[in-house]
Each structure stands twice: as C-alpha cells, then as structure tokens.
C-alpha cells in the first residue's frame, strides 16, 4: 500500500529549534523521578496499594518488568543494565522477581488484579531464552488476571531473536514489539558497538507481520558518532521501506559523566547541533510525507495504529514508558530501577542487583525512593500531562477540579509561555491554551514553564537538552 501524501505544511525553522533547545525533563511523570525522596521501606507504595484496593474496585493495572541483562554494551546506552553472558543470573533474577510479586500482589487484594497492559523492557528482554520468558509469564499469570485482550509489548534486540523466537513470543500472547534500530549505517553501528544489518531487521519485521502482531515500533537515534545528513537520511529511507506502525525518533544526549559506556564515544565524532537540527527536520518531514501522524515529542504512528487513534480522540496518556493508550491504569513496576505510579504515589526500586536481592531477602520492598503527591503536585501534573498528551489546557476544567483561578495561580508560567505565543507555537484564548501544529515539536520546553521544582531550584542543566 502506498502511503505517500504531500509533505506536511508544518514549517519549523532550524533557528527556532536551536533557540528552544533547552535542558529539561521529558515528563514521563510529574514531579520527575529525580525529585523522589528516600524511602527505604516502600511506605509510599504500600499505602497507595492499600488505598487502591479499598477505593478502585476492578480498575485495570498496567505492569512493567525491568529485565536488565544484555550480552554486550551499546556505547550510547543510558539504561540500567547488567552486561553478562551468564544465563544463571537470569534464573536467580526470576526467583527474586517472584518474591517481589508475592510482596505486592496481596496488598492489591483479590479481585483487583486485572491487567490491561504489560511491557517488558531493559536491558534486553530477549536476552532471556524461550523457557525463561515462559517462566516469567507464568509467574505473572499466577498472581494477576491477564485480560484476554490486553496489550503485551516487549523490547527486542534484533541480534537476539530468530523467526522461531518471534513465534514463541506470539504463543505467549505478545502482540506489540519494539525493535532497537538506532541507525543502519555500518560505520555508525561499529562506533556505538551495535552491529545489525538492515536486511536482518527487515527480515524480522516481515516475520512479525506474518505472525500477525498488532503493532511494530522501530527506535531511531540521531546525533550518534559519524552520522551525517546523508547517512541518516538513508537510514530514514530504509525505515520507511519497512513501514513500521510506530517510530520513535530520539536525540542522542552525550552525558559521559553520568553514563560510563558513553565515555567510549569520541565527542569529536558527534555531529554539530546545527546538523542534528537538520537531521530531525529531514526525518520529521519524511515520516509525515509518508502518512505518519505526529504523536508528540519524538513519536510517530500510522493513522490506523491505536496510538494515533487515541491521540485523535484526546485520550493519549503518558507514563514512565512514554506515550500509551490506557487511561486510568495504575502502573506497577517490577525489577531493579523499575518505577511504579499508583494513584498519587510514585516509587522507584533500587538500581543494583545486590541491593535488590538484599532487600527481598530481608522481606522488604526493594524500594529506594518514593513520593506521595501534594495538591499542588496533582494540579501541575494534570496541567503538564494535558499539554504533553492533548496539546491543550482548558482553564475552566482545571479551575473546577482544583478550585483555583488559573491566570492568578500560574501567572509566572503564563509569562514564561509568552515567547512561544509570539512565535505562533502556542495559542492563548479566554478558554485556555492550545499547542499549534508547529508547536508540538516544542511541547517539552512549554511544559517546563509549569514545573515548580525546576524554577524553584533553577537546575535545568541536570537534564538533557531537547536535541
């Protein structure tokens, strides 16, 4: 099917992108995870789960399982990972995941454990072999009610799967897959220590389609070593020949002081900011010219994909896995560094295997930090997520929900947003704020205007920039 259509009318100048290339959060939550407080006993999570069991009846859950293992390191990676070739580590990890589930599930209560969404991330979830993945799914099914029509997604390293493995994932009920591609240029792949030819990924995607998975996502990164406008355009063109249902287009953030593997990347080989702007611009226009809808920030989807449908319907959601489709689902995270969001509470697990195992051996939640949101946090969370997901803020709705006068309460934020208004990126009316088509590419720095913690501490530089 030919999805070509005229190039989008959206025009975003490179100068404008550079101007708003501001360091700040990605707002997978508000307050952001770096604002969580020490919580070695998991009190925020325990209280929130108890409240949920008493008040929410049969509201569905979203589950995330962090599987940190990788056989080799990708130099750009900022994920929490464990590099190993020893599968004995997986068996041990699964035993402790089972212990963590046994701590959490009883607090939810029988009849409150329906699951509408499951995501396996990492690391490389496909580091686990077929038997190990089967065991993991069995552990979940024994403790939660996995709904027949639930969304089951998994991140895939193309180097770790075969058609047979993909078929096994399908028998386990997985219906959405995400392939980590990043770039197809051999020189770039070698520089970041992740070699996977285009033909290999193309063949795997064809097999996924033959197996009738519901959705395929490809991840791309621009700003990697040795990338040029020409080389990255070729990667974009190759992705378009594959025609995935979704595309995630991320900017590489070079932060070697924070992420040790990035120290193996020579900063002199990275493209200049101006070149990154052009890469982003070329990719965006190519995707939209081939029929993709712009979802928000760095995500694109074909119009018939569920993500695009909920965006059109105003039901797009955002959590620690990024944009998603299930409104009102509390998120339970299992495994090292996993984050949970239950009602007005957040919690994050410890980041090392040693600390994770030690906590569970002591019969404790393996939680390191957490936060229960205050009224101002809840208000700002709704405002920021409305902006990030729906691209609009209705003053009257916020005022009725929280008993405030929007213009008075957010006077400083509205003043900060004026520069976006002047550029036609944000439209302000008596009824509210609405992001323009071009403004969608700047929704992250717009959201920062409402972040109390960011402006209170003036600590923008602790985050990556937009590009």
- Largest sheet, if any? 9 strands, mixed
Give average pLDDT, whole number: 91
Low-confidence stretches: 1-8
Q: Number of DSSP helices?
A: 18
β-strand number: 20
How much helix, percentage-wise, in residues?
Answer: 25-40%
The neighbouring-strand order within the major sheet is 10-11-9-8-7-6-5-2-14
Provide structural commentary.
It is a single chain. The chain is of the alpha/beta class and 467 residues long. Helices cover 39% and strands 21% of the residues. It contains 18 helices and 20 strands. Strand 8 (215-222), helix 8 (229-242) and strand 9 form a beta-alpha-beta unit. Helix 3 runs parallel beside helix 4 (130-143), helix 3 (88-108) packs across helix 11 (353-361) and helix 8 (229-242) packs parallel to helix 9. It is globular and about 60 Å long.
Short précis:
This protein is an alpha/beta fold. It has helices at residues 14-19, 43-55, 88-108, 130-143, 163-171, 186-191, 198-210, 229-242, 273-289, 306-312, 353-361, 375-390, 395-402, 406-409, 411-416, 418-422, 443-448, 452-457, and strands spanning 37-38, 61-67, 69-70, 82-83, 114-122, 145-156, 176-182, 215-222, 246-251, 293-296, 299-301, 317-319, 322-324, 330-334, 339-342, 345-349, 367-372, 392-394, 426-428, 432-435.
């Amino acid at each position: 099917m030919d999805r070509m259509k005229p190039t989008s009318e959206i025009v975003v100048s490179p100068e404008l992108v550079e101007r708003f290339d501001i360091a700040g959060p990605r707002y997978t939550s508000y307050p952001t995870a770096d604002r969580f407080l020490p919580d070695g006993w998991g009190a925020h999570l325990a209280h929130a789960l108890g409240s949920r069991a008493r008040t929410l009846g049969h509201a569905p859950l979203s589950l995330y399982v962090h599987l940190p293992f990788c056989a080799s390191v990708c130099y750009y990676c900022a994920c929490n990972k464990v590099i190993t070739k020893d599968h004995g580590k997986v068996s041990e990890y699964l035993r402790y995941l089972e212990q963590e589930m046994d701590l959490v599930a009883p607090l939810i209560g029988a009849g409150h454990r329906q699951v509408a969404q499951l995501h396996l991330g990492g690391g490389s979830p496909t580091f686990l072999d077929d038997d190990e993945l089967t065991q993991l799914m069995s552990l979940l099914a024994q403790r939660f009610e996995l709904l027949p029509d639930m969304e089951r997604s998994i991140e895939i390293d193309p180097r770790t799967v075969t058609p047979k493995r993909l078929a096994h994932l399908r028998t386990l009920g997985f219906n959405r897959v995400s392939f980590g591609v990043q770039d197809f240029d051999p020189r770039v792949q070698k520089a970041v220590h992740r070699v996977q030819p285009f033909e290999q990924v193309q063949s795997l995607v064809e097999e996924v389609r033959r197996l009738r998975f519901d959705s395929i996502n490809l991840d791309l990164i621009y700003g990697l070593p040795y990338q040029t406008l020409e080389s990255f355009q070729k990667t974009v063109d190759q992705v378009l020949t594959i025609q995935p249902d979704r595309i995630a287009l991320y900017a590489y953030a070079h932060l070697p002081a924070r992420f040790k593997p990035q120290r193996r990347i020579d900063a002199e080989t990275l493209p200049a900011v101006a070149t990154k702007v052009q890469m982003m611009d070329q990719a965006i226009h190519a995707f939209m010219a081939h029929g993709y809808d712009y979802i928000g920030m760095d995500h694109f989807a074909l119009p018939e994909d569920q993500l695009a449908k909920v965006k059109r319907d105003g039901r797009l959601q955002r959590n620690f896995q990024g944009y998603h489709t299930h409104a009102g689902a509390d998120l339970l995270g299992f495994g090292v560094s996993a984050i949970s969001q239950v009602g007005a509470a957040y919690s994050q697990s410890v980041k090392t295997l040693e600390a994770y195992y030690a906590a569970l051996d002591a019969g404790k939640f393996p939680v390191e930090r957490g936060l229960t949101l205050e009224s101002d946090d809840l208000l700002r969370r709704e405002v920021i997520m409305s902006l990030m997901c729906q691209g609009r803020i209705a003053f009257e709705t916020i005022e009725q929900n929280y008993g405030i006068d929007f213009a008075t309460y957010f006077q400083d934020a509205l003043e900060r947003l004026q520069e976006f208004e002047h550029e036609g990126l944000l439209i302000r009316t008596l009824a509210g704020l609405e992001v323009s088509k071009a403004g969608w590419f700047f929704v992250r720095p717009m959201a920062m205007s409402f972040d109390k913690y960011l402006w209170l501490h003036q600590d923008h530089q602790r985050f990556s920039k937009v590009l």
